[in-house]
């Protein structure tokens, strides 16, 4: 998988990008340029909509896409923020006008559960100039920064909804970057979280993408919803390794650190998302370059990879499991044809009838007939593969890159293809999208052996930009010229082995069990546990990640941390990972769990030089001795926000004495829910602090401090915020959050805990970036 990394990336559909980023900015593209004869000829031939609907569809495709966003986070925090939008911003924006014209306020997307997704359609100049929308825009930018809001295209929110993820599910996101759907899946796993404590779901989410840079974007994105249950890998999904986990782990059983003698079985998933790379023509409303560049060979070329990814996903699914296949393409060759071929290759699956789900989502049934073309000018389309082959000049049929699988199968009706969903832009003012929900109904009698034809298969070439599909996609050559050589099939050699720690069995502890997996093309090839792959057998020499290693639960540093930080014996110390080059090779795994502890340089000379990270607090909290948590109030918080290192004397009593009495090191304060002078908190707020010999520091990052300050006090009273304000007044442009004058309501005060909670955590992952051997490990 490694060899593609440098070229991978993708347009909106994760397909490769063709245009220079700014070549077709909307400012430069006239409506009259939004035309493409090939596009029109091809899609008219496919009958994707009726003749009467064709013009409305084109009109919609030419209009700018509305801005859409989703309120993110756990159920409790999301609902609090949603009430703030409903009760404060919508009324404020309902009165907004621009140059004498009323501007419509944001509205809830009608099909999204609990009204947590919104849409508004306001020109950029209004956002810049209308004071009300400017305020709202600031709010969105700010909340997006701290992870409470996800700017996401409406149609992109659909696939995770149909997966019905529950906290105990083992979930796989096969093509996950940049990660907007991964975030939705994670939120579903964490549905039972409270505002102050992160549950450790018994399920897990394995998010994967073959593009290394995009994988890192995904990790960055997912840090906004820190989850101990997330693991990220960087592998080719069409050839994803078998993951072996101990067969005998039962609910609540702790996985031993070394599993040499355990019987292993393949980890299968309850839910899998295959949001595959595609030509992305459903995104034309924002990726205007597609108007000019669209041609059908892009979709033709992606078909085989899409089938292989879906087929691999189907093989990794549990019985009764569910898999969602989706693209942002309108092309049946990338949609129904892929689903039909995968169903043929993997018996025992069916397309689920989900017509009763999300009834407010207007959609059209999947197609049962379509007419692929073999040349980019769409000079002709063909009802069947045979018809197509017959049309080729003598001798060219053999060289054709098209396969039978591009065409509708003879049994299209019996496959229930109309149960697939087509979302068209003119129906609800969205992008175009395709979704199919498949369920595994029974174990196939024998594993399918027929791989999709590799004829015509060639490597993906993608750039890192997510915005515009580009030219170097695995497009089939125009068969009429057949001039481009296709690359050899990619994939790890069958000898390749990769180990990744895995979370497998049910139960909070075992979910992070010390399990390893193997990467192999053949399901029977599994790496020896505990055996570091020989360098010559490792396919990807450019994988630069440090390995993850489990820390022995009796390691001195860990036991010191536990006593120093007052962690209860229930703390899952056998599940703590460090990340350093001394550990066993854990290749292709780029992220696991959440950081919870970090070395504190200022703590040198102390028994344990570690502190609980702000982002880890919510996960660690259930294991902290409650007696050691210090009671505080909003006044204490004000002091902590106003100065970086206030002395103990700066606090009012009784906190002043309490904190002075504490030893140096990491501590936690709790500000209880209720009315604190002019601020009302709807739930407790818990924060990590560091006490040195004379001063106290609030250990959350600057943005989280500014966020909290704005919510609670209506102004950014932090050092950085005041500096930014001063700079702004002096004519500069401060970057910290600035008080926009929006009134602080009780709801705003409530939601502050979201940022506090936005701190990531890892369930039990102590991550050491800088450390060396066991004694020197900095966890
Ligand atoms: C449509 S995008 C995924 C968008 C993502 N699900 C989201 O919601 O943010 C498709 C992704 O597939 C990735 N990709 C392309 N070929 C792949 C392969 N063979 N295996 C895994 N990922 C692949 C691309 O890097 C791209 O990030």
UniProtKB/TrEMBL annotation:
Active-site positions on this chain: 328
Domain SAM-dependent MTase RsmB/NOP-type: 57-441
Compositional bias of kind Polar residues: 491-501
Pfam families recorded: Methyltr_RsmB-F, PUA_NSUN2
Membrane-spanning ranges: none
Region (Disordered): 1-27, 442-546
Gene3D superfamilies noted in UniProt: Vaccinia Virus protein VP39
Keywords carried by this UniProt record: Methyltransferase, Nucleus, RNA-binding, S-adenosyl-L-methionine, Transferase, tRNA processing, tRNA-binding
Regions of compositional bias (Basic and acidic residues) in chain numbering: 469-478
Localization per Swiss-Prot or TrEMBL: Nucleus
Biased composition (Basic residues): 1-19
Residues holding S-adenosyl-L-methionine: 175-181, 209, 236, 275
Similarity remark: Belongs to the class I-like SAM-binding methyltransferase superfamily. RsmB/NOP family.
Official protein name in the record: SAM-dependent MTase RsmB/NOP-type domain-containing protein
Taxonomy of the source species: Eukaryota, Fungi, Dikarya, Basidiomycota, Agaricomycotina
């Amino acid at each position: 998988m490694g060899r593609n990394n440098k070229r991978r990336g993708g347009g909106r559909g994760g397909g490769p990008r063709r245009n220079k980023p700014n070549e077709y900015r909307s400012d430069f593209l006239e409506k009259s340029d939004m035309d493409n004869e090939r596009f029109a000829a091809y899609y008219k031939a496919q009958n994707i909509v009726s003749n009467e609907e064709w013009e409305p569809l084109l009109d919609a495709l030419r209009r700018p896409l509305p801005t859409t966003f989703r309120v993110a986070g756990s159920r409790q925090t999301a609902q609090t923020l949603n009430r703030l939008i409903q009760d404060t911003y919508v009324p404020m924006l309902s009165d907004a006008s621009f140059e004498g014209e009323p501007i419509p306020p944001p509205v809830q997307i009608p099909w999204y559960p609990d009204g947590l997704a919104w849409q508004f359609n306001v020109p950029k100049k209004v956002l810049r100039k209308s004071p009300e929308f400017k305020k709202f825009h600031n709010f969105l930018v700010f909340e997006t920064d701290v992870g409470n809001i996800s700017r996401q295209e409406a149609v992109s929110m659909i696939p995770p909804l149909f997966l019905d993820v529950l906290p105990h599910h083992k979930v796989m996101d096969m093509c996950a970057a940049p990660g907007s759907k991964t975030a939705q899946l994670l939120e579903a796993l964490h549905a039972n979280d409270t505002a102050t404590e992160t549950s450790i779901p018994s399920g897990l989410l394995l998010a994967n993408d073959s593009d290394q840079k995009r994988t890192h974007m995904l990790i960055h994105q997912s840090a906004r919803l820190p989850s101990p249950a997330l693991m990220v890998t960087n592998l080719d999904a069409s050839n994803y390794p078998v993951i072996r986990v101990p067969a005998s782990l039962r609910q609540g059983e702790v996985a031993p650190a070394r599993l040499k003698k355990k019987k292993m079985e393949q980890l299968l998933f309850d839910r899998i998302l295959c949001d595959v790379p595609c030509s992305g023509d459903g995104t034309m409303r924002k990726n205007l370059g597609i108007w000019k560049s669209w041609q059908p060979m892009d979709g033709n070329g992606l078909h085989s990879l899409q089938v292989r990814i879906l087929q691999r996903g189907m093989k990794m699914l549990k019985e009764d499991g569910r898999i969602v296949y989706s693209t942002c393409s309108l092309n049946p060759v990338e949609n129904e044809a892929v689903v039909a071929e995968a169903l043929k290759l993997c018996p025992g699956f069916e397309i689920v009838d989900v017509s009763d789900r999300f009834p407010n989502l207007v959609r059209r049934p999947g197609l049962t007939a379509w007419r692929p073309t073999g040349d980019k000018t769409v000079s002709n389309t063909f009802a069947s593969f045979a018809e197509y082959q017959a049309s080729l000049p003598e001798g060219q049929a053999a060289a054709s890159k098209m396969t039978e699988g591009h065409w509708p199968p003879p049994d299209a009706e019996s496959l229930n293809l109309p149960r697939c969903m087509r979302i068209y832009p003119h129906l609800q003012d969205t992008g175009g999208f395709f979704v199919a929900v498949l369920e595994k109904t029974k174990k196939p009698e024998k594993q399918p052996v027929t791989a999709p034809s590799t004829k015509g298969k060639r490597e993906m070439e993608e750039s890192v930009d997510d915005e515009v599909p580009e030219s170097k996609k695995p497009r089939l050559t125009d068969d009429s010229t057949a001039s481009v050589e296709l690359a050899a099939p990619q994939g790890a050699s069958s000898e390749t082995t990769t180990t990744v720690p895995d979370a497998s069995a049910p139960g909070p502890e075992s979910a992070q069990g010390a399990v390893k997996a193997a990467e192999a093309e053949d399901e029977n090839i599994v790496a020896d546990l505990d055996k570091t792959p020989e360098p010559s057998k490792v396919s990807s020499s450019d994988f630069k990640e440090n390995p993850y290693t489990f820390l022995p639960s009796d390691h001195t540093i860990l036991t010191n941390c536990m006593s120093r930080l007052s962690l209860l014996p229930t703390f899952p110390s056998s599940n703590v990972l460090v990340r350093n080059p001394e550990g066993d090779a854990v290749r292709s795994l780029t992220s696991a769990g959440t950081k919870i502890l970090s070395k504190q340089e200022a703590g040198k000379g102390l028994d344990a030089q570690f502190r609980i990270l702000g982002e880890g607090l919510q996960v660690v909290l259930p294991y902290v001795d409650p007696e050691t948590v210090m009671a505080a109030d909003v006044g204490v918080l004000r002091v902590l926000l106003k100065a970086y290192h206030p002395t103990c004397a700066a606090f009012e009593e009784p906190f002043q004495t309490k904190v002075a009495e504490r030893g140096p090191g990491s501590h936690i304060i709790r500000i209880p829910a209720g009315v604190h002078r002019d601020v009302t908190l709807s739930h407790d707020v818990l924060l990590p602090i560091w006490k040195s010999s004379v001063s106290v520091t609030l250990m959350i990052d600057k943005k989280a401090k500014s966020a909290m300050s704005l919510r609670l006090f209506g102004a950014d009273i932090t050092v950085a915020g005041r500096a930014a304000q001063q700079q702004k007044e002096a004519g500069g442009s401060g970057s910290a959050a600035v008080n926009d004058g929006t009134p602080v309501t009780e709801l705003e005060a409530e939601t502050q805990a979201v940022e506090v909670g936005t701190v990531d955590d890892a369930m039990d992952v102590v991550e050491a970036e800088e450390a060396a051997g066991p004694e020197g490990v900095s966890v």
